[in-house]
Amino acid sequence: MVNLPNKIIVNILSRLSVTTLCRFKCVSKPWLALISDPFFIKTQLNRNTDDNHHHDRLILLSSSSNFHSINFKSFQFQNNFEAFHLKFPSKQNPNLCKEIWGSCNGLLLMLNDYFSFFLVNPSTRQSKKLPISPFSMNSVDKCLCLDSYGLGYDSSSDDHKVVSIAHYGYGCDFDDNIVSVYSLRTSSWRRIEDSPYIHTPYGPSSGIFVNGALHWFASSFVGSNNSTVIASLDLTYENFGDVPSPVDDFVLFGELSVLGGCLCMIVSRRGGCKDVWVMKEYGVRDSWTKFTINHGCFPLCKALCLSKTGEFLLGICQKKLIFYNPKKKKFKRLVVRACPNHFVVGTYVESLVSPNCSNMITRQ
User: What is the C-alpha to C-alpha distance for residues 68 and 238, in angstroms, rounded to an integer?
Assistant: First the structure.
């Protein structure tokens, strides 16, 4: 490859897996510089994300804090899956992580048993422990504080941002939703405008990153009426708004996720049935499309991904992975070898984006 133009070399290498690229950094100093270059990192990330923005990996966190990964890039009702144990270097081991609070560009926002947050790249086995937001807890009054979090990317400033929304109440002299933003570029927290919504209708929740904004289920009081809204925080302008919901009444229980790059909303109904809404065109209420899961045995489910043939994958009660075909209305359990018995599940895309680097995506 010595005599090949650099553009062709980038074209070839960017098609390889992250594991292979990490090994290829040892080939030579020029390849180390090339694979570490922000432009190459962006090229590889864009190539690894298809036109529908599918995530291609599942991350499973077991009760013993072990990390497992499943490649489902081309799943179509097949059973040849295996969960691979991910081993982290001792110096960068995100110990005791049990919860996933966000996913963006190959990075995962995780919380451990000691309420410490980590940014983790499962593909490169890199991680970074984040400082605690000085606005997330009232240690003086010692009142109850419920925090919601989210992870996203601001393309205008080429910066990954972690958002903390601290809802103070029950014993405090004030009842606010204090919002702070951690910038990976500056490695610091700062406070922005308070949220006009109540972000804890079902308890603390993780923000879903779609179309440059983070989204949470929230409550909004209009007069004496309490309504459910999908609150959004634009990460470029750092202001709040809301996305039109497909339902007008108060949602007893709901969860947001991403399916095929689109905002997805699951609403539970009486009898255990669930309505799965997918917003085909962001911000357009009439573009919401509904699928109904007529099955009362799934009290808790999470929409994980959508296949090219229309099936989608559900995580059930932290114990099962289920395929569902909305056209045929059929279920099939996903059999995974070496899968932990009990797990927290999330999705991510393979990338070289580093949680320890300030300029990770673009190059002027």
Answer: 34
